[in-house]
Design brief:
Elements lengths: L1 E5 L10 E5 L8 E11 L1 H8 L13 E9 L11 E5 L9 E5 L4 E2 L6 H21 L7 E4 L5 H13 L2 E6 L2 H9 L4 E4 L5 H8 L5 E6 L6 H6 L1 E9 L13 H5 L4 E3 L3 H4 L3 H16 L7 E6 L3 H9 L6 E5 L4
Parallel strand pairs: 8-9, 8-11, 9-10, 11-12, 12-13, 14-15
Antiparallel strand pairs: 1-2, 3-4, 3-6, 3-15, 4-5, 5-7
Length: 327
């Protein structure tokens, strides 16, 4: 038997139950992995609350790292003992042991530990597509990144520095401001003390930024538009404050013929070649030390509900992980 988080209904953190589950042998095309670390991300909250629907009863989690312990029929790319990491569907990463399609898994370089891998896969692959594919940033660009001291934000701050991009980050406290600056943000704006759009205009000599990366959603959407230079792009890739309400397309024309996109990671890594290319880039910058993964919260798997409470109350910074075999 194995332990896992399961939920039979949507709602608050209390709907998550720590249960014994039976995990059968891997099916054809699958491998079984003993998970050593599991990533915690805001998308997990969306599934838990029902904002993003899933069949119930079910599990939670889309990211983890561990060791292959069994191989299903037809799998030739992996063997027992291989170190692997992943980010993606099927949902259910909050578990000690699980079966996954071999096509989802990536061989983990020896220089990258399990904790680091579990903390970086979803967030790091997200930053890769945001900065290299949704908009291909280049040296000299100036962008705004909301929630710059979060897990995605801290990776973005560092990767922007690698690319020679000026990143302006928004944060909610002076402690988080210092963290963002330490990780490569050129400027930070404390949204509890300063009007974001006005401060962005000051920092850019009135021009605005070419791209705004916004994972907050409802609370920041219009202000994000106000931060953009003409022909700028708003990349809305999350909704931690709630979904963006309907708006008139005339808002984009009035602010300078702006662009808006709502991407998700899954479309960018749907093809195996694209997934492998993104992973190589991520493993490269992490393995070289150019991007460091800040794991600032660790929880036992049994305490997943507390991890969600801390995440939703904005008490966290950097990445959070669950440890499935901690006593």
């Amino acid at each position: 038997m194995s332990k896992a988080i399961r939920m039979s209904r949507t709602g608050g953190p209390e709907v998550m139950e720590y249960l014994e589950v039976e995990v059968g042998p891997p099916a054809a095309g699958e491998v079984q992995i003993r998970q050593e670390a599991i990533g915690v991300n805001f998308i997990d909250v969306y599934f838990r609350t029902g904002l993003y629907p899933q069949p119930l009863p079910g599990g939670l989690g889309l990211e983890g790292a561990g060791v292959v312990v069994a191989v299903g029929e037809g799998v030739t790319t992996l063997k027992v003992g291989d170190r692997v990491a992943y980010a993606g569907h099927p949902i259910g990463a909050y578990a000690q042991l699980r079966n996954l399609p071999a096509a989802l898994l990536l061989a983990l370089p020896e220089k990258i530990g399990f904790d680091t891998a579990a903390a970086m896969m979803l967030q790091g692959l997200t930053v890769h597509y945001l900065m290299h594919r949704t908009v291909q940033l280049k040296a000299g660009d100036t962008v705004l990144f909301h929630a710059a001291a979060g897990g995605v934000g801290l990776i973005a701050c560092q990767w922007a520095r690698v690319l020679g991009v000026t990143l302006i980050g928004t944060v909610g406290s002076e402690e988080k401001a210092a963290l963002a600056i330490e990780n490569g943000a050129a400027h930070v704006i404390n949204y509890n003390r300063e009007p974001v759009a006005e401060r962005v205009r000051e920092l850019t000599d009135g021009r605005g930024v070419s791209v705004v990366y916004d994972s907050v959603g409802k609370d920041t959407f219009l202000a994000s538009l106000d931060c953009l230079a003409p022909l700028g792009m708003l990349v809305s890739f999350g909704n931690s404050s709630g979904p963006v309400p309907p708006f008139s397309l005339l808002e984009l024309a009035a602010r300078g013929s702006l662009f808006v996109t709502r991407p998700t990671l899954w479309h960018y890594v749907a093809e195996r070649a694209a997934l492998e290319a993104a992973a190589r880039a991520l493993f490269g910058v992490v393995g070289s030390g150019e991007v460091k993964i800040a794991i600032n919260q660790r929880y036992n798997l049994a305490d997943a509900a507390q991890a969600h409470r801390d995440l939703e109350s904005r008490q966290t910074s950097g990445s959070s992980i669950l440890l499935p075999h901690a006593s």
